[in-house]
Design brief:
globular, 18% strand, 3-stranded antiparallel sheet, alpha+beta, binds iron/sulfur cluster
């Protein structure tokens, strides 16, 4: 990544962080109230059949999962090797590299924590993406994903609590992005893009997160 790209990346993240940190929580809360929302615990958003149900994990999610001994065996690198037409990042030795972690999924692409009754088995410790679903912030704007619980009554207190989580999630994600890129640049590794179909013998992957780099055996995916 060239010097100019690097500084452009950092300044765009810092700019968005400033926008987010100056957001009016009450305005977000009233938008959520006017949309209406209640999680009906249907589990639809946790299922592969629902669409992109990948749950990206921020640094606070990772700490919480670790504390609950819910990391090993449940968390995998943020990568999708199923689509052979997808571009991946590799170093000069052909080793895969990626940024961040996500929750593991079953062969049906359902979340690993969803049981047969469509119940989340870690509901009280679920990641920020799940706690704030179907809401998220995009360049300071509140956006909404598809969800069966939309349009339902939500109290001002609950809407405000959700707004606080939505904003905090974005702040953590942006701070994580800065730290992860700093760790990547410190590594001095030069990466190139290669099609998944050209990466046949990869056995391990290097993952950058806010704590540094770690190696992950791809047979554990
Ligand atoms: S952690 Fe729970 S709420 Fe989140 S996707 Fe998995 S089952 Fe659904």
């Amino acid at each position: 990544m060239s010097k100019s790209n690097t500084s452009a990346l950092f300044s765009s993240v810092y700019e968005e962080l400033e926008v987010i940190e100056n957001l009016d929580i009450d305005s977000i809360a009233s938008q959520i109230m006017s949309i209406g929302f209640e999680c009906i615990r249907c589990g639809k958003c946790c299922r592969g059949s629902f669409g992109d149900n990948s749950v990206l994990l921020n640094s606070e999610d990772m700490t919480l999962l670790e504390k609950q001994s819910l990391k090993d065996g449940f968390v995998i690198p943020m990568i999708d090797l199923s689509d052979k037409e997808q571009w991946q990042l590799v170093d000069k030795n052909g080793i895969l590299h990626t940024f961040g972690w996500m929750l593991k999924r079953t062969p049906d692409m359902d979340c690993i924590f969803l049981n047969n009754n469509s119940e989340c088995q870690i509901y009280d410790h679920r990641p920020y993406l799940c706690r704030t679903y179907p809401f998220f912030l995009n360049n300071g704007k509140l956006e909404v994903c598809e969800c069966e619980g939309l349009g339902k009554f939500i109290s001002l207190e609950a809407a405000r609590n959700l707004a606080v989580h939505v904003v905090h999630r974005k702040v953590v994600e942006l701070m994580d992005t800065i730290k992860i890129y700093e760790k990547f640049l410190e590594s001095g590794v030069v990466l190139e893009e290669r099609l998944s179909s050209d990466i046949c013998k990869a056995s391990r992957i290097i993952v950058y997160d806010t704590k540094g780099t770690s190696e992950f055996d791809l047979s554990r995916l």
